[in-house]
Amino acid sequence: MNWESLYNLFGIKDFIYYISSSQLQEMLFPVRLVFIFCSIFFLAFVIYFMLNSSWLQYKFLEDVTEFFSWQAYGAREISKRLDKIKKRIDEGGESEMKLALIDADDFLEETLDDRGYEGKSFEEMLNKAEALIKPIFKDVQKAHEARNSIVYDPNYKLSKEDAKRMMDVYEKAISGIGTA
């Protein structure tokens, strides 16, 4: 049995002749036009929104920045913000140091949230990120407890050494989570 006899057996030859006939092609021409116009419309729609959104710019900027700086995207911004907080600790009095530590704790919470570690409380978010900050996890918990004491106890005393130690813990945690 050869191919031609199989074509005739299943009627494939007749079907091919039918779908390639000029009569059917003339009947389907309006349908083809509708599909072509829809395709052009949706292609234009996609191009318009890609050009007007910041997603492409963000992705391109992210890649170029990582390539030329040899750092993870956003590492420079993290470093700048941490330097600003550390400067407040070095130059300020006790009240300025307390505010700087509160700011560092808030920055850690923002970093956790930005990286997808969601939770109802800071502690819950921190527990989800424990694997990233395993060596300093207990220190971060202690620093957060001290931050809570600063917020809720107006008589809480904070030394410059304690503030610098807690800031180092926050810096390691933020850097570990922010660049992961």
Structure write-up:
The chain has nine helices and no strands. The protein is an all-alpha fold and 180 residues long. The protein folds into two domains: 3-53, no CATH class; 73-178, no CATH class. Helix 5 packs antiparallel against helix 9 and helix 6 (94-114) packs parallel to helix 9. It is elongated and about 95 Å long. The mean pLDDT is 82.
- The helix content is over 70%
Quote the beta fraction.
Answer: under 5%
Number of domains: 2
Number of helices: 9
* Rg measurement, Å: 31 Å
Uncertain spans, ≥5 residues at pLDDT below 50?
Answer: none
Distance between the termini: 65 Å
Mean pLDDT equals 82
Q: What order do the helices and strands follow?
A: HHHHHHHHH
Structure classification? mainly alpha
Give the oligomer, counting copies of the same chain as homo and different chains as hetero.
single chain
